[in-house]
Amino acid sequence: MAILGMRWPGLEARATACGRPTLEWGMGAWQGGMKDPAQRYLIVRLSSIGDIVHALPAAAALAETFPDAHIHWVVEKRYAVLLAGNPHLHRVIAIDTLGWRRNLTSSETFKEIWSGVADLRSDPYTAALDFQGLWKSALVAWLSGSAERIGLGERWIREPSAAALYTQKASPREGAHVVEESLAVVACLGAHTDHWRFPLPWYEEDDNYVEEQLAAFDSKEFILINPGGGWRSKCWAPENYSGLIRQLRGVRREKIILSGSPSEEGLIAGILKGAGTSGALYLPTTLVQLIALARRARLFIGGDTGPLHLAAAVGTPIVGIYGPTDPARNGPFAAEDLVLYNHARVDHTRSPGAGYLAGISVEAVVAAAEERLMRAHG
Questions:
Q1: What's the CA angle centered on 201, arms 262 and 303, to 5 degrees?
Q2: Is the residue at 199 inside a domain?
Q3: 47 is in which domain, residue-wise?
Q4: What is the pLDDT of residues 324-378, one digit of tens each?
Q5: Ramachandran bin of 315, using left for φ above 0, alpha for ψ from -120 to 50, beta for the remaining angles
Q6: The whole model's pTM is what?
Q7: CA atoms of 19 and 17, how far apart (whole Å)
Q8: Are residues 147 and 281 in the same domain?
């Protein structure tokens, strides 16, 4: 196990190599980054929470560099709320590929797919930018009708053959954070930024809900813990979280609030039962309410999952519990944040038979939490 201090990647190292177009089509309306008011860019980042968050600075860089351009984003319907009110976007196109796959033989599904493709092609795009690197996302970029389609090169994406649909391929610097990978894609158009922006939705009613819940539980000062994750090998064992809560309540004054999706409520109930201590509770939230909750937390503790990346985006102090994904690429980026990493082989597959993340003790996480709280609050 290693304890890593995270760093904000130096944007001076953002230089990338972009492969030139190889197909026979011309470059359309794109003329080397000229600020043409008719420019339209399509961002393709369909899912999931953390990946969408990590693509936000690239959208901001595109808007800053081409202030007259129209920027559209195609996203899975269930995640579209993360883009609500984004000042850099002129249009959000929500599609439901998960629903389509569940009912692929239905005539209604074919109608929805046809309507979705027509929607994509309703505006002529200067360039389509695929931040996801999957066949489905590359296909969406291709279906948009844009002659210019830019994505990461084969070595950088999960489905390398999908790069066959790109007309340009970006190559980020070695060891780049995933945010920098998306910035490398927009750099092919000449877009750049000196700092990362994460515009996330905010609604007064969601703020009020969070404030009311915190007041009801007398939890003005609290540590936010998210024990879930996309797959089991990224998750610390439930009994470890129970022990963590018990030990934190023994040495800290803050209350403990657990967050999670509705499907994780059973997991969270078991963790709280195992902790057997007062001052710890589960607070159900929507995504936007979770963002409001993270903004108020004194510390966030969790693995490589969407809530951690939302917390990082709003500047919450973080202790990350990592393995088998690499925190240098997927971790929090504030210099003061701490990550405990078991250095397991990097693996992005979702094996149903995988065990929980091992090699990180409860005591190590408690010590890291104390250190990160001291750095943030003295």
A1: 50
A2: no
A3: 9-187
A4: 999 999 999 999 999 999 998 877 667 677 899 999 999 999 999 999 999 999 8
A5: left
A6: 0.90
A7: 7
A8: no
